[in-house]
Write a structure and sequence with these properties.
single chain, 528 residues, alpha/beta, 20 helices, 9 strands, 11% strand
Length: 528
Amino acid sequence: MPMHISAACKIACMKAMNCHEKEHQELAAATTSNGLDWLEDSISFLTADVDIGGWWSTPPAAQQDDIGSVVAQTLSPPAPRPTTSSPLAHASPSIASPAVSSPSEPSSKKRKSPAHRAASGGHSSSNQRRRSEQGRPGGGGKKGGGAGNDRDMRWAEQLLNPCAAAVEAGNLSRVQHLFYVLGELNSFSGDANHRLAAHGLRALARRLPAAVGAAAAAAVRVPACECPTPAFACAEPRLFRASLIRFHEVSPWFALPNALANAAVAQAAARGGEPRPLHVVDLGVSHGVQWPTLLESLTRLPGGRAPPTVRLTVAGPTATPPAPFSASPPGYDFSPHLLRYAKSINLQLAIGRAASLDSVHGFVTAGEALVVCLQFRLGHTAAEERTEILTKVRGLNPELVVLSELDAGADGTAAGEFAARLELLWRFLESTSAAFKGRDAEERRLLEAEAGTSLSAEAAGEGRDAWRERMAAAGFEEAAFGDEAVESAKSLLRKYDGGWEMSAAGAGAVALRWKAQPVSFCSLWRPA
């Protein structure tokens, strides 16, 4: 009979000193080379010598209790020891707590993750995993379900944040222990906690060499954590397009800011006397999915005020530093579909592509209503790059600028920035669980794999207030959305999971929230 996790923990604690002494010495030598002298015992709370495979078939509440027990033991403070510790241990007790190293070789009785079970074949195990996910907190299926605000249930963050702090501090024995525990619990196809653990472990494993040096990082055994899903920009074009469309149908993450942007663009097109040509510069991540709705709304402007011509200039991924969701796979081109649609509704549309913001100037002509849509691309750039890009946008002298960004302010430290990105990714993963009703769909995996790359970003995130100051410094003043645009956005939001809400955020911005926690904002700006 499979042994309960708590029993496994006790057995592991008894065996740890003899089983992992050699590995601990290797890690200690590596940390000493970095000027750190960690004299810590090695205790393993999970062991590969014990079969705990039956854990997956236990009720969800018992599963959560088991994991909570493991997390509590993993992060519990050590008993005082009369040994000499490093200065860093005095400065940061949470980072310098005793490390627990992993077994030197994985056992054949190691608990299988959902990904391993799926790989081993069998529809019954796949169905069991799906049923288990739907029954767990955050698994989706019920409107507003999950444990998004209950941090006690969010065990992945409780492991990943101390691990990030240990990586930045160079505490390799602590890193090794947390890597091992995360390696046991992570899965790219489990519930939101397991998926967050998988993406976080992969990001920290990639960060480790830069933080501690390649030689020291080589002494740490990194669990297998490569995402099995192809990269977003390498996906098959039909899957890429289907994933974007499906995501807009089931989640407002991008759909709501896009709807607000479209309403603002249509409002700008209707402003003034005679209808004018409309020119939209697309510096976003919609890959064409946003624009059919805009084109259709332009044909319904009152008084026959549809613009005589519409031009869409798409600034490619090289126009800004790389950002999640900004690149598309080779062979993907939304232009033919959009041009056919525009023709079907009697709208004259032209589409151009600009490799850089500097080249956008060549597409601008006098007398047109110029609108620039900056959506989810600037937040992943460095501060000086944001300033440079906004200066170039101001140089275009647009009539209107739409800025949509993640609301992700942090304290500026590497560990703090990681924690802020981790929390946003949790909201993404938990909300996609709800959006896809807990189904492990191919489209969901593709989108989540791309969202997970945000954990490896080095640029500091900024909140709404910081962006407001940045836009003002670039020569813009904030404008307000019209009442009709806000009401339409509220109506759109009702079709999604009940955990979503929107609210005013400042002078005229609209904020999107998941379970009362900030996700993003959409704002309007005009040249000052």
